[in-house]
Design brief:
By secondary structure, this protein is α/β, with parallel strands linked by helices. It is 36% helix and 20% strand. The protein is built from 5 helices and 7 strands; from the N terminus they run ββαβαβαβαβαβ. The chain has a 7-stranded mixed sheet, sandwiched between helices. Helix 1 packs across helix 5. The longest helix is centred in the C-terminal third of the chain and has 20 residues. The N and C termini lie far apart (33 Å).
């Protein structure tokens, strides 16, 4: 498990706000670094914990010494326990089901997207091909995360890819 802090200057009027607590479940080291570097470009004050499979994610979430994250990003294809299986267990747990879950995948097959939606994911993000694309996608994810608190979920906004972010 890796922890990383992305400390950004705090805008006026935001002093005292806690950083966004994020767990990234991703087994690929290069994708972990890409995520953390892109997150650093979003200007979102955050603390990130990285786990390498779905079982580590569940163990972290059920660890009573850890506070619940504000958001989790889950790679779909991981060893030990895959992302979809971990998502099902999270959404089936009364204590964890309300944590926003963003699924990450290189695939954009409609059946995979539909399956993640049906199992309770909040967003499905197709991993971008570029660093700039990843930054844009993360900015959109954080915008949608906060907007969702104000609006009912909108199904047409569920799938996010580099192609539909502008």
């Amino acid at each position: 498990m890796i922890s990383s802090e992305n400390s950004q200057p705090v805008p006026d009027g935001e002093i005292g706000k806690e950083p966004l607590k994020i767990i990234l479940a991703e087994d690929d080291k290069e994708d972990q670094e890409l995520f953390l570097d892109a997150l650093g470009e979003t200007d979102v004050d955050s603390e990130v914990t990285v786990v390498e499979n779905g079982q580590e994610l569940l163990d972290n979430l059920k660890d009573e010494s850890q506070s619940d994250p504000d958001m989790i990003f889950i790679d779909i294809n991981m060893p030990v326990k895959g992302g979809v299986q971990a998502l099902e267990e999270i959404k089936g747990d009364e204590n964890l089901k309300d944590i926003p879950a963003v699924m990450l995948s290189t695939w954009d097959h409609p059946l995979d997207v539909e399956d993640a939606f049906a199992k309770g994911a909040d967003l499905y993000v197709q991993k971008p091909n570029s660093f700039a694309g990843f930054v844009l996608i993360l900015k959109k994810v954080f915008f949608l995360h906060w907007a969702k608190a104000l609006l009912a979920p909108v199904r047409k906004l569920f799938f996010v890819s580099e192609k539909n972010v502008s």
